[in-house]
Write a structure and sequence with these properties.
This protein has ten helices and no strands. It is an all-alpha fold and 232 residues long. The protein has two domains: 60 residues, Arc Repressor Mutant, subunit A (Orthogonal Bundle), CATH 1.10.10; 166 residues, Tetracycline Repressor, domain 2. The N terminus is likely disordered.
Length: 232
């Protein structure tokens, strides 16, 4: 039951350690369904999982280490469903530019349905990678490269004009754009009050799906134009 810290008993086997790690990850994932990344604290995570904070740290070196694992997991879950979304959205008979726009719209729509992934991605470089060891950072980066390459393969299947390098640029750019746009589409209470008080300033407000679609479309058009040697 949440709020009850049970007496800690050291896991005696690797199987027991795996169960404990998974319980911590599952609890943190459930918390992200209730609150943004910025509000998830190690103290509250420890309380909900039923372990003292020092014991949670036996399995993960920091709050950020837990969240990096969840980011990797959320990204892989997204990719597992993305191929079908792209297949439905992209017309293989369309021009390169049209397919680029269709890819961008499909990516934005699928990301908009995964707010936890976007929130984690928005915190990745500025927060999550700042309080981890080199070992955890290296593991996270290896996983990130693998998922970026998987995404690049999905994109190149719809935009075969791109070579492997440019497909990877589009994949990496999409992930960076999603994180950046998410931050700007979730402004502080002070900024929201400013928009409410002065509608003229609300022109600076960005809609997530629209913003991702537009930025990814521009990036795809540029890469396609460079690949084909003409306007995409």
């Amino acid at each position: 039951m949440y709020g009850m810290v049970t007496p800690f008993q050291r896991a005696r086997s690797e199987e027991q350690r795996t169960v404990r790690r998974q319980a911590i990850l599952d609890t943190a994932a459930a918390m992200l369904g209730e609150m943004p990344v910025a509000r998830l604290s190690l103290n509250e995570l420890s309380r909900r999982v039923g372990l003292a904070k020092s014991n949670v740290l036996r399995y993960f070196e920091s709050r950020e280490a837990v969240l990096l694992v969840l980011l990797d997991r959320a990204t892989r879950e997204w990719l597992a469903e993305l191929d079908g979304a792209l297949a439905s959205a992209v017309d293989p008979r369309a021009s390169a530019r049209e397919r680029g726009d269709q890819v961008a719209a499909a990516l934005a729509a699928s990301l908009a349905e995964r707010p936890v992934l976007c929130d984690l991605a928005s915190a990745q470089a500025a927060v999550l990678e700042r309080n981890v060891s080199t070992e955890v950072a290296a593991e996270h980066k290896r996983s990130g490269i693998a998922t970026a390459r998987e995404l690049a393969g999905l994109l190149r299947a719809r935009l075969p004009e791109l070579d492997d390098a440019d497909a990877l640029r589009l994949a990496a750019g999409t992930l960076l754009i999603a994180g950046a746009v998410w931050t700007h589409t979730h402004p502080s209470a002070a900024v929201l009050a400013v928009y409410e008080a002065d509608p003229a300033l609300a022109v600076m407000r960005v809609d997530f799906r629209t913003g991702v679609t537009e930025f990814v479309s521009v990036l795809a058009s540029g890469l396609l134009a460079r690949a084909t040697g003409c306007s995409a």
